[in-house]
Structures are given as structure tokens and as C-alpha cells.
Amino acid sequence: MDVVILLGAPGSGKGTVCTRVAEAVGYRHLSTGDRLREAVKAGTAVGREARPYIERGDLVPDEVMIRIVAEAMTSEAPELRRFILDGFPRTDAQALLLQQRLRDEGGRICAVILLEAPRDVLIERLAGRRVCRDCGATYHVVNIPPKHEGQCDACGGELVQRPDDNEATVRNRLEVYERQTASLIEFYERAGGLRRVDSARPLDVMVSEIRDLIVAGVS
Ligand code: ADP
Ligand code: ZN
User: Which residue segment(s) compose the domain that 46 sits in?
Assistant: First the structure.
């Protein structure tokens, strides 16, 4: 199993970047946020358990996350287990679990990439983000506008604001990131190979830089 880890605060653009990079490098985009939102939408047991945490902008308990990720990984055939992890790990316990899994399976981390942006950029991105109600595609009212206002380019679905993109929840998500996730930067820095990418630049520039980093890490 080969994994690439994308770290970064809410609003740093992990999801948008991963969607564009994953296909180019032949990796599967594994977004724990997307998995959780699907589970909430489908009303599964996991979704019902996770929903209140997501609405507050708190982290969903590690046991739940570990189950979701293990399931997603093992659902791929062993020779297809190449993942870009978007939103996981987010706590020390999740990072340790991933290490253990990689050890057990003889897998490796090809690259750890940190998307960095100043706080005002993060907030502006989250406030202007819109998502397609039907297919989940992501837009931004200014930076990535759809061709027709309020309408998804891909499927024509209605564009809405994510419920956890309201101001109070955004503030909490940024605090939770500082408190529970930022320490992983040091963890992966010590482990070696953490690369920092300035995510306040145009998306295309960032995407090609990240693609190059991944290709260099894989070979
Ligand atoms: P963002 O990075 O912009 O906050 P995500 O879609 O990655 O957005 O996450 C949305 C929410 O899903 C988080 O606020 C949290 O409640 C939950 N979540 C996602 N990934 C994890 C994780 N690895 N551990 C715990 N909770 C998670
Ligand atoms: Zn759509």
C-alpha cells in the first residue's frame, strides 16, 4: 500500500487539490470528510453517530474514523491500494494507527504535503465555498465560479453552502485544527519528508507543484 498524506487547515484546499491530483497520478482520493457526509446523507449508523460532531465542527471520535478508513482501504484490491489521504490522519491516535497498518501490510508513505495559507485566506475560502447538492463538486463564488450561477457544471445540481461552513462552526474548526491536528506537522517533520506548499497561489500552480512532489516521492 502506498499513501500520500495531505495536511492543512480547513479551507487550505485539500479537497479541491486532491480531486485534481489523484487522477493525474493514478491514486485514489480518500476523503474522510466526504465519506462522513455520504454516511450522514444515507442515514447509516456511522452517519447518525458522526452528524452532531460535524455540525459543531468537532472531530468525530477516533474509533469511528479508524473503522471508516480501514474499510475504505480494504475495499480496494491489494495491488490497487494507492491512496491520497485527505483529512486523515487528524489526531495522534489516527497517525499511529496508520503507521501500524503500513507496517503490517508492508506499505509506505510516499509523501506528506502540508498546504499552508494565512488565516484570512482560509476564512475567505470557507465563506465563499459552495458545493453541489447532488454530486458534491466544490466551487467558490469568486475563485472557482460555476458557469451558471448557483448551478453545478458537472451535473446541473443546485449549489449550496455546506452546513458547517457557517461563521461560528468555521471558527471552531480552525481552533480544533490548531488544538488537535497541527501537532501532526511536527510528527511528520520528525519522521522526515514533510513538504510545505504555499496554498495562497492559483490552483493550477499548486496542483502541478503537488503532482511533481508526489511523482518524485513515488519513484
Ligand atoms: P475541512 O478540512 O474543511 O474541515 P472535511 O470535509 O475534511 O473539511 O471535514 C469535515 C468534518 O468531518 C470535520 O469538521 C470533522 O467533524 C469530520 N472529520 C473529517 N475527517 C476526520 C478525521 N480524520 N477525524 C475526525 N473527524 C473528521
Ligand atoms: Zn453536481
Answer: 2-118+167-218
Percentage of the chain beyond pLDDT 70 is 100
Closest residue CA from atom 16 of ligand 1: 54
Q: Is residue 219 scored above 80 in pLDDT?
A: no
The beta strand positions in 103-201, using DSSP E, are: 108-116, 129-132, 138-140, 159-160, 194-198
In a domain, 106, yes or no: yes
Question: How many domains, the chain?
Answer: 1
Q: Does 163 sit behind a cis peptide bond, omega within 30 degrees of 0 on the bond before it?
A: no
| pTM of the predicted structure, to 2 decimals | 0.94
CA of 219 to the centre of ligand 1 (A): 30
Q: Which residues are within 8 A (CB) of 69 and not within 5 positions of it... i.e. 6 or more apart?
A: 30, 32, 85, 88, 94, 98
The enclosing domain of 43 has a CATH number of: 3.40.50.300
What is the distance in angstroms between the CA of the first residue and the CA of the last residue of the chain? 14
Is 41 annotated as catalytic?
Answer: no
